[in-house]
């Protein structure tokens, strides 16, 4: 049985596969649904006001990143674990999802900020930054639902 979720790779993804920045992966619908589920659950949990701002920021970021990985996975590919692969995954996914350049810059900034938090435990995270990142995650989910409606059913 052929999955209706599996998408044809774009020329850009094919080029990145050829240059060994991406790798082909065996597609499995359950795994595809797991990426989406992780995104939805993380973004939902990021809205829990009882948790710390840092924890909520991290959850929102991980939810968006799970959505990014999932969008590549829908094309039968995943990034190779190497320097810069996380930022590349975010950029590719935001392009695949037709999200704005402003949203991409916001997410790349959040990715760098998350690295700062990992190395400097006292790196600040404001409530506004958490809310902005959650809103970005909600926009990304809405856009994903428009482009890949079968992924949600």
What does this structure look like?
The longest helix is centred in the middle third of the chain and has 21 residues, at 53-73. α3 (53-73) crosses α4 (85-96), α3 (53-73) crosses α5 (101-119) and α4 packs antiparallel against α5 (101-119). Helices cover 64% and strands 4% of the residues. It has a two-stranded antiparallel sheet. With 153 residues, the protein is mainly alpha-helical. It has a single domain, classed as Four Helix Bundle (Hemerythrin (Met), subunit A), CATH 1.20.120.330. It is globular and about 40 Å long. The mean pLDDT is 93.
Please sum up the structure shown.
With 153 residues, this protein is mostly helical. The protein is built from 6 helices and 2 strands; from the N terminus they run αβααβααα.
Q: Keywords for this structure?
A:
single chain, 153 residues, mainly alpha, Four Helix Bundle (Hemerythrin (Met), subunit A), two-stranded antiparallel ribbon, 6 helices, 2 strands, 64% helix
